[in-house]
TrEMBL record:
<protein>
    <recommendedName>
        <fullName>Reverse transcriptase Ty1/copia-type domain-containing protein</fullName>
    </recommendedName>
</protein>
<feature type="domain" description="Reverse transcriptase Ty1/copia-type">
    <location>
        <begin position="2"/>
        <end position="176"/>
    </location>
</feature>
<dbReference type="InterPro" id="IPR013103">
    <property type="entry name" value="RVT_2"/>
</dbReference>
<dbReference type="InterPro" id="IPR012337">
    <property type="entry name" value="RNaseH-like_sf"/>
</dbReference>
<dbReference type="Pfam" id="PF07727">
    <property type="entry name" value="RVT_2"/>
</dbReference>
<dbReference type="GO" id="GO:0003676">
    <property type="term" value="F:nucleic acid binding"/>
</dbReference>
<dbReference type="InterPro" id="IPR036397">
    <property type="entry name" value="RNaseH_sf"/>
</dbReference>
Amino acid sequence: VNYDETFAPTPTFNSLRLLFSTACLKRWKVRTFDVKVAFLHSLIDKPAYVWPLMGMDVPKHKVLKLNKALYGTKQASRCWWLHLKSILQRIGFVNNKEDPSTYTLNRGNEQAILWVHGDDGALTVSSDMLMKILITQLNLYLKIVWDNAVNGLVGISITPTEDGFKFWQPDLIDKLTGLTPSKIVAKTPLPMNCQLESTYSSNVMDKPYLRRIGILLYIAQASRPDITYALNYLARSMGILISNSSPLLEMRCFVDANWGGEGNRSTHGYVTFHGTNPIGWQSKRQTTIAASTAQAEYMALSFAAKEMLWLYNLFFDILKNPIPILYSDNRTAIGISTETMNRKQTRHLIRDFNTINEFITTHKIKLEWISTNDQLADILTKSLGNVKHGYFVSKLTYS
């Protein structure tokens, strides 16, 4: 065996959206790039040999020893990640512990954030001069093609607008609609109170169905939070605008839960904003059965708080954001979380869910009540009617 370690981290969509949100709100420039033959820049970490290709002048019974992490070798991705990491550290970047394929740089009053996925990446910096310096330094070590204008990354079209960037996936959506026999556009992802019977669910688990769900899940994670609940529901059995219009760099997270449902398991959802820009979202069935709406909401708050603090800490050394805020429309769950109400009804819940109380007590987050009519996470927990669905979509900063 010619390898030991093969793991190489890949960055999240959340950190990519946070990078662009930071660039917009701070009025920083963004450049995207592609590293040519990236893997061949890095040395292979273990002796590895290959058979010579047909036509090569190699003595009989001889093999070739690899010097570089050739594409196709098991450890190539990891070797490239370690090689790039060492280069960036020489330049002055710090590898982010929260997301190991993102990097930050503080150089006097100048700052930069770098996001790398394989051989593609994005760089945002606080000044044109620092951008020129970093591009020059990186070009000394790597063969990089720098895009003159931002147009896309990892299958996401990123279109500059007057006040920011639009994240959308028109090509992938067009491809998907070509797979389906119907071209009818629905006003909402699911009908209200939709219930799939188990007999129906088993009949649709064919390859075309699974393929469409897989494509849609990628789209939902990258640029379409409004279809996240519908896909979460179906998998059981428009694009966002990143804008510079908000004067604040605060993080806000809207959290909701829909108690009960199939198998008595609740569904929770949350969407996190950086300023006015949605950067992270999730819709998920809870694995622990909640005995009441308040319990479901309390567990949802714990899940959301952990995710929001992860995002908050991601670029904390650069952003220095105000304390993030969670919004819930359930006063009982808020009372339990802030310990201003008797916790008898939640005492049987596992300790993991009590982290929300610790975060509030130590002033890592704030928790505030919000009206159900303004609870944006509602769109991630259940199917809504046309009017309410449309209203929440507009609040998610859509074109």
